[in-house]
Amino acid sequence: MVPGEHGLPRHAEVLGGPFGTRQLLRLDEALRVADRSTGLTFSVYVGDLDEPVRGHAEKLHGELADQSRVVLIAVSPNQRVVEVVTGSAAHKRIPDRVAKLAVLTMTASFGVGDLAGGLISGLSILVDHAGRRAAA
Amino acid sequence: MTIIETVLLYAGVPAVVVLAVFGLVFVGQARRGGRRYRPGRPYEFRPVWFLAGDRRMAGNLALGTASSGEWPATAGQSGTGGASGTW
Q: CA–CA separation, A23 vs B32, rounded Å?
């Protein structure tokens, strides 16, 4: 990871999106801490998903490099669906039971309109259960 | 007081106050509440995809729903886990 480099695209469409500047910074920090502490790659997608939703989320997951270590959280506010996809290596450290717990936490926040807060809570649950980098 | 003064005092001043309150409320809404997700309202923002650090994704952010048939075939379907939820 390159120090000081921010993963959030600083395009106008992101700043004009559903997240405020402070929320974007918190999300960025949460993602960087998640990657650094676990050694896995966490990614968040917010936008419409095609039917079947699960299949689309897995395709997005497959687009990322080193996908066995990738954990993707895909949220579609229009369809009111959230999907967590874990790669094969990530799946060993984040069982489906834990992914479901993160999903339940996120949907509780999404239901009251808090996208950023839900994503950060869900990330923290996944990170807590994935453990430290040495456990990989 | 003349009639004009009376009208200004009892109709003009309340009208100005009402307009000022309306204006403040409207400006506040447009600035804060205009661009966020609310459950039940349509979500019309472009898709965003966040990734930390120097890792870059293979595709770009223009993941419109129209391009669903063009995804590369990947082996990522096997061995993946996760969970789903709705709200």
A: 13
Q: Map tokens 């669906």 to a residue.
A: A81
Q: Quick one: how many helices (H) and strands (E) in chain A?
A: 6, 3
C-alpha A61/C-alpha A72 separation (Å) is: 6
Cβ–Cβ gap B48/A84 under 8 Å: no
Cα separation of A65 and B69, whole Å?
Answer: 20
A47/B46 CB distance under 8 A? yes
**What's the pLDDT tens digit per position in A60-89?**
888 888 888 899 999 999 889 999 999 988
Q: What are phi and psi of B45, to 5 degrees?
A: -85, 160
> Cβ contacts (< 8 Å) between A59 and chain B: which residues?
71, 74, 76
pLDDT at B1: 76
Contact call for A87 and B59, based on CB within 8 A: no
Q: Is the separation of the CB atoms in B80 and B66 below 8 Å?
A: no
Nearest to B82 among A78, A83, A104 (CB): A83
Cβ–Cβ gap B77/A47 under 8 Å: no
CB neighbours of residue A7 within 10 Å:
20
Residues A41, A33: Cα–Cα separation, whole Å = 10
With 0.80 as the threshold, say if the pTM is over it: no
